[in-house]
Amino acid sequence: MLNKIVLTMALLRLGSGSIEIIAAMLMLRFNQIEKAIMVNSGLALVGPLVLIATTTVGLVGIADKLSPSKFLWVAAGVCCLFIGIIKK
């Protein structure tokens, strides 16, 4: 039997991957650089949102097993990831 938290995380990632594949197919179908850039820009929103959602679901699943100090370390790590991926 699958763990519901793991299943949810996997389904979020499968959905994200499906969106990526659909976006690639749209780029090929439009066959225009301008439209491909627009599609790609939309994907820039999907990645971080899926990361936030997947991480949140995972943290909720292990919240009872983490001490407050370890939870803060995990939160700090997630913050560092977002600081690292922010485009300026």
- Domain tally: 1
What is the averaged pLDDT score?
A: 90
The count of DSSP E runs of length 2 or more, i.e. the number of strands, is 0
Structural class: mainly alpha
Helix content: over 70%
> Count the helices. How many?
3
Shape: elongated
Low confidence ranges: none
Note the beta-strand portion: under 5%
Distance between the termini: 44 Å
Radius of gyration from CA coordinates: 17 Å
Biggest sheet character: none
SSE run: HHH
Pfam families: DUF2619
Protein name: Membrane protein
Keywords: Membrane, Transmembrane, Transmembrane helix
Organism: Paenibacillus swuensis
Topology:
Elements: H1 4-30, H2 33-62, H3 68-85
Please give a structural write-up.
This protein is an all-alpha fold. It has one domain (4-85). It is built from three helices and no strands. It has helices spanning 4-30, 33-62, 68-85. Helix 1 runs antiparallel to helix 2 (33-62). The termini are far apart. The model has no long low-confidence stretch (mean pLDDT 90).
